[in-house]
Amino acid sequence: MNRRTIPEEYLAGYTQILAEVAATGRRLTRDELQSRRALGEQAAEAGHGLRALIVKHLAVTRAAWPDTAAAGVLAAVEQAIDAFAEGYEGAQRLAVRQEEAARREFIDDLLYGRSDLGRLAERAERFGLRLSHAHAVAVAGDPASYDETGSVLRQVEQAVFTRFGDRRILLTTKDGRLVCIAPGDQDDILASFAKHAHAATDGGQVAIGRPHPGPGGVVHSYEEALNALDLAERMHLEGPVLRAVDLLVFPVLTRDRAAMADLVGNVLGPLQKARGGPRPLLDTLTAYFDAGCVAAEAARQLNLSVRALTYRLTRIHSLTGSNPADPMHRYTLQTAVIGARLLDWPAKNLGPRTV
Fold it and tell me: Model-level pTM?
């Protein structure tokens, strides 16, 4: 048999216990039992299999009585238990693989909106979800990648389940991201998941979709969370937790891409005439609007003097005909700046209508 050798440290004191029990016929003391439990925990943490540990104990037991009839019996016991444990482990591995395959297939169908919805709802009960109710989905994005046996998933799962128990929660991974599916009326679960996922991934962003009812509600909420992560990357949103409900304005702005491209091209296109190209003036507008139109704060963010910032704003007004300080012009300019971020302009061409 090709098994890992079990270090003698995990049998510390065992032969002495056997000798005393053989001499007196007594049962093990509380301290002796506790010492066996502690060694068992250490062996498990070190990755040793239970089968190998049991066989090692039987071998040591047999060695303690080499000249008695018990030795033959113990040898047979060792072989029988080893074969029994081998069969048990094989069946257990197969069951785990089958369960993992069924779980992964269900998750793929659930998050991609595949399969018959009625059948999907039936399968969901097996994994603790009632798809007749509303559900919301939280997704933890990069920087890390995760797998079903990864330490990050286990760490977050333990933290969430320790606080909330079962509560119809499903924690899993999908395409390199952590995913939490929870009842739509229990936002505290998703908030807790977001907190622990953010910490466990060294600051990775977490997005939370809105609650939606029915079997299709999970995939809808999942897609909202994914879109929020994508939007955060394009818009440079830096918050640790993104909620789809707070970002609804962006899908509205991008619903008609041609109209948005036309707005960006006509409003901001003239900035291309500036010396050095449009990027410095576009960054100035971005910082100005992000600072709540407070020139001093925007200048600080850009490492400029207030005078230099004011000059840039004047130049923008001159080129575009829109004054960033004028409330009537500000909304159009700010919408165009948001559109430029969403369309990655000026890095990408808007098309023939760009000025």
Answer: 0.60
